[in-house]
Amino acid sequence: MLDALLDTFWTKGFGGASLDDLAEAAGVKRQSLYLAFGDKETMYLKAMARFAGWLEAAFVQAFAPGRPLAEGLRAFYLKSLEFYLSGDAGPRGCFVLCTAPVEAPSTPAVRAALATLLGRIDAGFERRFGAAAAAGEIAAAASPSTLAKLAAAALHSLAIRARAGADRAALEAFVAEAVATLAPPCAPSPPGPPPR
């Protein structure tokens, strides 16, 4: 039932999804919907939490120990595209990034949930870039925090471009460019002086 609510909010947004829309999608009467989930804001926040769980699972899978950084980034972005390009009425982008910012100024709980999710995305990327720096996959002087924010910005851009109708080939080309920029091959250390 929660997935049906998420799907409706994703397609219509928080403001555009009426209680009748939500009840119909869930296959229950409005009263039953209230009893199961509470008010509309609570339904939306629970849908956000469900989506955040999917995102966490995608991070874990893409950045499994031992997987090269570039390969993991590519896998994460391409998995995200599967979500972003879904939808019966056309590509919907990211559920959270394409619906929550509209409600955030007037709904403190949504604003807080959005800020938390953005922080989790940054933290997930930063952990991986930190490990990459320690392992010599990227330059030791690179800033994991800055790279994380750039990686997140690329993710957000993919979501919006997908919702705007960019085709898969263009989005996959964007992924390739983002990965090449964020995880270039690390140049080997210069050889030391010859032995005397």
What is the structure about, briefly put?
The chain is mostly helical. The chain has helices at residues 2-16, 19-26, 30-37, 40-62, 69-84, 100-103, 108-135, 144-163, 168-182.
Model description:
This protein has 196 residues and is mainly alpha-helical. 70% of the residues lie in helices and 0% in strands. It contains 9 helices and no strands. It has helices at residues 2-16, 19-26, 30-37, 40-62, 69-84, 100-103, 108-135, 144-163, 168-182. Helix 1 runs antiparallel to helix 2, helix 5 runs parallel beside helix 8 (144-163) and helix 7 packs across helix 8 (144-163). It is elongated. The model has no long low-confidence stretch (mean pLDDT 90).
What is the string of SSEs from the N terminus onward?
A: HHHHHHHHH
Helix percentage: 55-70%
User: Averaged pLDDT, please?
Assistant: 90
Radius of gyration: 20 Å
Give the biggest sheet: none
The poorly predicted ranges are none
End-to-end distance? 74 Å
Strand content: under 5%
Supply the helix-strand structural class.
mainly alpha
Overall 3D shape? elongated
What is the β-strand count? 0
- Tally of helical segments: 9
Question: What keyword list fits this structure?
Answer:
single chain, 196 residues, mainly alpha, 9 helices, elongated
Note the topology.
Layout (H helix, E strand, L loop, with lengths): L1 H15 L2 H8 L3 H8 L2 H23 L6 H16 L15 H4 L4 H28 L8 H20 L4 H15 L14
